[in-house]
Design a protein that fits this description.
36% of the residues lie in helices and 13% in strands. Helix 7 crosses helix 9. The protein is globular, with a radius of gyration of 23 Å. The chain is built from 15 helices and 15 strands. The chain folds into three domains: 153 residues, Rossmann fold, CATH 3.40.50; 165 residues, Glycogen Phosphorylase B (Rossmann fold, 3-Layer(aba) Sandwich); 92 residues, no CATH class. With 445 residues, the chain is an alpha/beta fold. Helix 7 links the parallel strand 8 and strand 9. A six-stranded parallel sheet has the order 4-3-2-1-11-12, sandwiched between helices. It has a six-stranded parallel sheet with strand order 7-6-5-8-9-10, sandwiched between helices.
Length: 445
């Protein structure tokens, strides 16, 4: 089985069910487990869950702080962009402001429309339908009302293959995320990193974004773009106008932005930081090129060209990478290039939300019933549950999986209770591990 042959297990989303199970299994096998979190909320088994992970590989210092990751066990790996795919085109003309992201209130697109400088065009690329409840549910309609009479184009969800061209043609990328939405709702955690920012920077496109979350760790004010106070429409308009109006400034910011990505924020560099952490945990840092791992919880600053982490030489060992986050799936090919024996598990089942809408066998449940069936510890991924005929629709096999999760969670809780108090013996560990694996075939293929 995949877990059985791994020297180390790397999961994504600390509180997701696959991470919980992988961490328990790894502990019972004596394998170190590491985790990269992307903001999924949920319980932590009364503080026991974080204790199962030997290292937290955080996407930003801000993310590590929000997670409460122990500094001594935390390494900042950041994310990345593919500089061969996202590359400037000197022959292409640049024009207007670009936004790429979900059309949900905390992204602050309403402020962006209000801040659009005179004579500038705004292109909005992003999907709708992420907020099931009013008033947030009507946010896309609000945006269209605000855009009436303005030079605003709603492009809808843009395929990945078309994104590079959008970045190349934009004069500036805007990411005006807010701490309080237009509906008055406070946002506790926003923009753990900002991959669209890195993709734009790799494309030689300057960025104007809010000074919040992990964004100040990757955008250098006045060097690769500008940081503005969240929700400040006047400051946002002023900075956008400055970049759109001054082509020489935009070109300089764009060159600096791409240079910074090439130095520090490629997916290959991210993979190297991961491998350096793996090697350090296995006590073979020398195999990773003799360099030391990234400084704990230290954001990247300064203009040094030195890489964070070790060199690109292969790391001895067999590692398991559970890439459950779609954006972070881009990291896997780079990990594979550096270490061919890395195995990817945790495939994200796509289009389940679409299936649930059209599957004749979909089961319609009221929200109160869903909570009873799934249980608060199950934490089903969002795409598997969707609004349906006034209730919640769950594809039948997902419903069966949810029921398995409830039973399995009791087993995991028992394992954690024993592991957490160090009272579990080898025989009990083997027995419990077998029981866990038999109840979760999809996670241990």
């Amino acid at each position: 089985m995949a877990l059985a042959g791994a020297d180390l297990v790397h999961t994504h989303h600390l509180r997701s069910l696959p991470s919980r199970l992988a961490a328990v299994s790894a502990r019972l096998r004596g394998q170190p487990a590491v985790v990269t979190d992307h903001g999924l909320q949920g319980g932590d088994w009364a503080g026991l869950l974080p204790r199962l992970f030997a290292r937290f590989l955080a996407v930003s210092a801000y993310s590590a702080g929000e997670l409460g990751a122990p500094p001594a066990r935390t390494t900042i790996i950041y994310g990345g962009a593919d500089p061969a795919r996202f590359v400037p085109d000197p022959a292409a003309g640049r024009d207007g402001v670009l936004f790429v992201g979900r059309l949900t209130p905390h992204k602050g697109v309403d402020r962006l429309i209000a801040a659009l400088p005179p004579g500038a065009r705004l292109r909005i690329a992003g999907s709708e339908g992420h907020d099931p409840d009013p008033p947030e549910r009507d946010y896309p309609l609000l945006l269209r009302r605000l855009a009436a009479g303005r030079a605003v184009d709603f492009l809808g969800p843009v395929p990945d293959r078309d994104l590079p061209a959008l970045y190349r043609r934009a004069a500036v990328l805007a990411l005006p995320s807010v701490q309080r939405t237009c509906y008055g709702r406070a946002i506790r955690v926003s923009e753990l990193l900002g991959l669209v920012v890195l993709e734009a920077m790799a494309s030689g496109t300057p960025v104007v974004c809010s000074r919040l979350g992990g964004l100040p760790e990757i955008v250098r004010h006045g060097v690769t773009g500008f940081l503005v106070e969240p929700g400040d429409v006047d400051e946002l308009r002023e900075r956008l106008a400055e970049v759109v109006r001054d082509r020489a400034l935009a070109a300089r910011l764009g060159r600096n932005a791409r240079e910074l990505v090439l130095e520090r924020f490629t997916w290959r560099a991210c993979a190297e930081r991961c491998l350096a952490a793996y090697a350090e945990l296995r006590g073979r840092a020398g195999d990773a090129g003799g360099g030391r791992a990234a400084d704990n919880r230290r954001p990247i600053h300064g203009r040094s060209r030195a890489r964070i982490g070790a060199s690109a030489r292969p790391v001895a060992g067999r590692f398991l990478c559970a890439a459950e986050q779609d954006g972070w799936r881009k990291q896997v090919p780079h990990l594979l290039a550096l270490r061919p024996q890395i195995v990817e598990i945790g495939e994200v089942r796509r289009d389940l939300q679409r299936q649930a809408r059209h599957d004749r066998d979909a089961v319609a449940l009221q929200p109160r019933d869903l909570g009873r069936v799934i249980g608060e510890q199950a934490h089903l991924p969002h795409p598997e549950v969707t609004q349906h005929r006034g209730g919640v629709a769950v594809v039948p096999h997902v419903l069966r999986q949810a029921q398995e999760m409830i039973r399995l969670d009791r087993i995991v809780a028992l394992v954690l209770d024993r592991v957490g108090t160090d009272l579990i013996g080898q025989a009990d560990a083997a027995s419990l591990l077998t029981e866990v694996e038999q109840n979760t075939p999809a996670l241990f293929l």
